[in-house]
Task: structure prediction
Amino acid sequence: MTNADPAEQAASGRISQLLAHPAVKIVLPLLIVGITLFVLHDLSAKVRWSDVKTDLAASSWRSILLAICATVVSFCGLSFYDVFAVRSVAKGQVPDRVAAFAGGAGTAVSNLLGFSYLTGTAVRYRIYASLGVDLGRVGGIIATSWVAFWLGLTLVLGVLMLAHPAGLSAVLPLSGRMETLIGLCVIAALVALLVWLARAPRSMRVGGFSVPLPGLKLALALMGVAVIDLMGAATTLYFLAPADLSQNFVFFFVVYMIAIGLGILSHSPGGLGVFEATMIAGLGASGRSDMLAALLVYRLIYSVMPFLVAVIALAVTWALTQRTAIMETSGWAYRLVRPLVPVAASGVALLAGSILLISGTLPSDAARLGVLRDILPLSFIEASHLAGSVAGLLLIVISRGLYRKLHRAWAIAMVLMAVGMAASIFKGLDWEEAVGMGLTLGLLGAFRSAFYRANTASVFRLNGVWIISILALLAAIFWIGLFAYSHVEYRDALLWQFAVDANASRFLRASVVVALILVGIVLNSLLNRHTAVTQKQPIPDVVRQLIAQSDDTEAQLDLLGDKAFLVAQDNSAYLAYCDTGGSLITRGEPVGDETAGRKLIWQLREQADRAGKRCAFYAVSPRYLATYLDLGLSILKIGEVARVSLQGFSLDGSAKKDFRYAHNKAAREGYEFAIIPKAEVPGVLAELRGISNAWMASKQGDEKAFSLGYFDDAYLANFDHAVLRHTETGRIVAFANLFQGAYKHELSLDLMRYDPEGPKFAMDALFGALMLWGAAQGFHWFSLGAAPFSGIESGELSSLWNRIGGFIYDHGEHFYHFEGLRSFKQKFDPTWTPNYLASPGGLAAPKILYEVNVLISGGIKGLIG
Result:
C-alpha cells in the first residue's frame, strides 16, 4: 500500500475535524431539513390534499397485503441480526427468543422515533445489559449487527454493479465496463474477508475490549439476513408505489437506500419529510398525488404498525410480569421488557402528539362540523382546536421525560392525552382520533409502575439533540398544513377569520401559538441549564461525632459544608455527596459502621435513580468495591494515596536532606514550630488569612472545594493548626490545618500555605517538623494524600481507560506535575493504596470526571489556573 501525500492527509484530517465539530452536527441536520421542506413544497405544488385522499381511498388491498408481508419479512431479518450476533459474541448468555425480541421490538420502537436520540442501539444496549451481559460483549453484539447490515448492503450493491442491470446507470453514471470492474473488486473483497474469517478464529478490539468475529458460516448467515432485511424494507414501498414509477426495482432500491441514509443524517424522527422528499425527487414523482398517498401508507405499514404491535406486546408482557413479580416468579420476560418500556411509552406520546398536530393542520370534515355547529358555540370549537394542537406539542416535548422514567412526565402525559381525546371530539367529531387517544391513554396507563423517578428539574426542558429533532418534526408537520391549504391564497386577514369552515385560519392560528410555545421551551432549555448545588449545607451533629470517631483523616473534609449528607437510621454511619444537577457524586466512601455504610451506598444509588440522575463514588478505597460492583457500576483506578509510617520516623537519609536542611536552618534563624489549639484559632485567623491571600495571589489560582479544603473561618475553626513563626516577633510565616484521626491512627493536613515574602525554607521546615511532631505524639501514619493517575497500568492489553490515564500521566506535565508529585511523595518511602472511581460505564465516566472537576475547580479553566 502506498503512502498518501502529506497534504492529502492533512486535508483529510481537517475535513474529519470539521465534520466532528458540534456546530456542523447541528447545522447539517437543519440544513437537510430546510432543503427538504423547499423540495417538498416545490414537488407538491400541483398536488391537492383532496387528490391524495382520493388516491388513499383507491389503494389496492392486494398491494397493501403484499406490503405487510414484505414488512414481516424485513422484521424477521432484523430479529435475526441479534440472534446471530449473540451467538457470535455472547454465546449461551442470551436465549435466541430474547435476542430476536430485542432486535425486532427494539427496531420497531426506534424506527418510529428516529435515529437521532432513541436508536435501536440504545434500546439493545439496555436490554442486554439488564440481562447481565458485560459492556464489552454488548458493544460486540451491536457492532456485529451493524457490520452485518453493511456487509449485506455491500453484497447487494456489488452484485448489482457486477450485473449492471438496466436502471443502475441512472444513479451511478459509470460505463458498463467500470461498473463491472468495481463490482468484481467489491465481490473479491467480500470473498477475501470470508476466507480470512474461515482460516482461524478472529477478533477485533472495540474500545478496550476484544470482540470475537463470526466464523465463515455465521458471517454468511449474517449477510443473508441483512439481504432479507434490505429487500423486505425496500419491497414494502415498491408494492405500494405507482406501477409506472416502480417498474425498475434496481433503480428503485438504490433511491430507497439513499433516502434512508439522508433520513438518518437529518435527525428528524423516522426521517419524516426527508425520506419522502428524496423518494419523490429520485423517482421523478413531482406533482404525483398517488406517490404521496403511497408514502403515507408506507409510513403506516412499516413504521406505525410494527410500533403498535410492539407496544401492545410490551404492555401485555409488562402487566403479566408485574403480577408475577408480586409472586416472585418473574424471570427473563420482566428483565427483557423493562428497558423497553420507557422508550415505548416515549414513542406512544410522540405518536399521539404528532397525530394531534397533524389533525390540527388538516381540514375538518364539513358534515361533522355542521353537526357541531348546531350543538356548540363557535368559540368552543376554536378553543378545542387550539387546545388539541397545544396538547400535541406538549406531548412531543414530554416524551423525553417519559424516556427518562419521570413520574411527573407520565402524569402530565396522561392529562394531555385526556385533553387531546376531548379536543378531538369537540373540534370536529374526530371519533377515530379520539378512540386512538383513548387506546394510547390505556397503553400509557399500563406502564404506570415503570415511571418512579422524581426529578425536580422541569420536564419541559430539552437538550440540544431533542431540540433539533422536535424542530425537524414540527417543520415536516407544518409543511403538511401548507400542502393541505396550498390552494388558499395567504393574506393577513386569515389569522383573524373565525368561521366554522375557516380551516386554514385555524391552522395558521394554531401554528403561531405552537411556535411561540416552542420558542419559550427552547429558550428555557438553553438558559436554565443544570448547575451544581454549591450553597452551604448544615452539618448535623451526628456527622461531627462520626468524623471525630473516624480514623480516616479524609473524612474531615466533610466539615467544609459544601456537601449534603445521608445518615443511617441508627446514626452509625453517614455518606457525603454533592448534587451536580445531573449526578449525585460522593467524596469518598461512607464514614462509620461498615454494614450501615453498604446500605447508605444502595440508598444513594436508589435516590439518584428516582431522580433520573447518575450516581458515582469518587476517590474510594478497595473497602466497598464489591458493593459498587453489585450496583452495576464500573471501577476505574484514578490514582494512589501515599501513607508514611511514623513508627521510628526521622529526617535522616539522603532522600530527606532538603527537609533536614530546612528544619535546621529554621532553628538557626530563630523560627519555631508550634501547634495552635482550635480553641485559640479564631484569634489568629486574620493573620492566617493575610498569608493565605498572599499565597493565592502568587499562585494565580482560585480556591478549590469538594475534595480539597479552602480558606473559610468556620471550616478552619474545627482544627488545630501547625505554624512556623519567628521566636522574637511572633510573626507567622507558614501554617497548616491538621487532620487528626481517632485513636491517633493517622495524621494529615489540608491547607498548607506560606508567606511568599517570608523565608524560602518555610514550607519544607513546617512539613518536616509536623511529621516529627506526629511521630512524637504517637500517630501511626501520616497521609501525604493522593497522586492522580499514579500506578495505572497502560500496557497494550490494558483497558481503554487505563491507556487514557497512563497517557495523561506521561504527557500531562505541562498542566499538572503528575510525575513530580509522585516523586516528591516517594522520598518518604510510603505505602501506596489504590484510589478508585465507581461510576456508570461507557461515556458516563468522562462526564462524571468533568463534573468532579467542576466541583473541585469550577471547570477546565479553574483546573488549569
Observations:
- The two ends are 46 Å apart (CA to CA).
